[in-house]
Amino acid sequence: MSDNHAKAAPKAPAPVMLAEEEIAEIAKRHRLSAAIVMEIVRRVGTGERSAIEREIKKGLARR
Questions:
Q1: Which of 49, 59, 45, 41 is nearest to 14 (CA)?
Q2: How far apart are CA 38 and CA 15, in angstroms?
C-alpha cells in the first residue's frame, strides 16, 4: 500500500489588507501610529473596523 502525502496542509488565514487611508484614519482618531494599527489588524485577523477599535480600547484600558 502506498501512502498518499498529497493531503492539503492547513493553511494560515490570509492577512486582511485595509486601505492605507483607512489605517491612517483609525490611527489619527485614536492617536496611534499606523504601524501599531496594522499590527492590531494582523493580530485580530479581520478588517472589520469595529473589531479593530474594540481591540484598541482594550489595549488602552491596560495602560
A1: 45
A2: 10
The conformation of residue 44, written as its DSSP 8-state character, comes to: H
Separation CA 36–CA 46 (nearest Å): 15
Residue in 4, 6, 51, 11 with CA at minimum distance from that of residue 42: 51
Q: What are 7-47's pLDDT values in tens digits?
A: 655 555 555 677 899 999 999 999 999 999 999 999 999 88
Average pLDDT value for residue range 51-62:
90
Place of cell 486601505: 19
Number of neighbours of residue 33 by Cβ within 10 angstroms: 9
